[in-house]
Amino acid sequence: MQKLSKTQKRILFIVLGLVILTGCAMPDKDNASHFYDLSTSFAQVWEISKFQAIFVLPITYVINFVIEKLNWGIIAGIGIATLLVNLVTLPLMLYSQTNSAKMQLLQPQVNKINKKYEGREDQQSNMQKAQETQQLYKDNNIKMSMTLLGSLIPFPLLIAMLQAVYRANSLFDDANRVMGSSLNVKPFDGFKTGPNGWLYIVIILVMIGTQFIAMKLPQYLAKKRLEKDRSYKKYDEVQSQPAAGAGMMNMMVFMMIFIAISTPTTMSIYYTFSSIMMILRSIIGDQMVAKSGISSQSSRGSAKK
Q1: Is the pTM of this model over 0.85?
Q2: Rounded distance between C-alpha atoms, residue 238 and residue 149, angstroms
Q3: Which of 84, 106, 133, 260 is the most exposed place for a label (fewest CB within 10 A)?
């Protein structure tokens, strides 16, 4: 796994702390104002929390509408809410993911630059190496800030969804169960108390499986691109390292799994649909990189020269 920079570690710990604090701030079950239904107004929530009014309330509205008005059930409610949230962030996430894939494809050229300045630790050499690397990325329309931003976007979405499953009124209605089981309990609590305890295990296993595929698919696609470009064998040692931002993405996946087993089972459903969207983005991003014409041997910028 790629090591995180100090800045990435600080951001990760800050966001993890926010997630934990948000998870601890569970609504009072005896206070109806802590739960949102289809009649809850934006103004009401705005007075309590600006974040919940902007991000949480719309998600709860979608969940409640699908469950109460369409009668499609809890899984469909959370799935459609996850789909809509991902569609809103799709352009930025896709751009970030495509950038990351391009960087992975250009890694052999970055390795050439590093080898060129190997053993030269003076300030001028370090500056020249940095400038050449930055120029390589610039020639291929890669922006590091956007790549990092894309890896951070899931965190506020995670906080918003966590609050939504705690506050969507329809999720706590006993009439809305899946095979007679409530999904408002933690997976292992549901497994122990039942009924249909096996359902919780299946949900967790499906969630972990989709998370694993979503995490590994970008690396697999990058390897296939390099093999097609006939450069993988030559640069396999370099390519074995994840692309920039992959370290934080891996940490995020493990953190999500931890949160999934310590929060209501509805969050595991969210992670499953979110992972499916990540898989689709990886496939679309791979096609976009293929059409960009970037090669591990020469970049668009160098081709022009």
Answers
A1: no
A2: 24
A3: 84
**CB of 267 closer than 8 Å to CB of 252:** no
Query: What contacts 3, CB < 8 A, 6 or more positions away?
Result: 247
Tokens of 302: 């160098």
Cβ-based neighbours of 118, under 8 Å, separated by 6 or more: none
Nearest-CA neighbor of 239 among 253, 256, 219? Answer: 219
pLDDT, one tens digit for every residue, the chain (305 residues): 344 555 555 555 555 555 555 544 566 666 667 789 999 999 999 998 888 899 999 999 999 999 999 999 999 999 999 999 988 888 888 887 788 777 777 877 888 888 888 888 788 888 888 888 888 888 888 877 767 777 677 778 878 888 898 899 999 888 888 888 888 888 888 888 877 889 999 999 999 899 889 888 887 887 787 777 655 454 444 444 444 455 555 666 677 777 777 888 998 999 899 999 989 988 988 888 777 766 555 555 444 44
* Distance between CA atoms of residues 73 and 193, nearest Å: 22
173: left (phi over 0), alpha (psi -120 to 50) or beta: beta
- The CA-atom distances, in angstroms, between 256 and each of 109, 175, 194, 224 are 34, 29, 24, 28
Q: Tokens 């950038």, residue?
A: 99
Q: What angle do CA 292, 296, 299 make, to 5 degrees?
A: 55
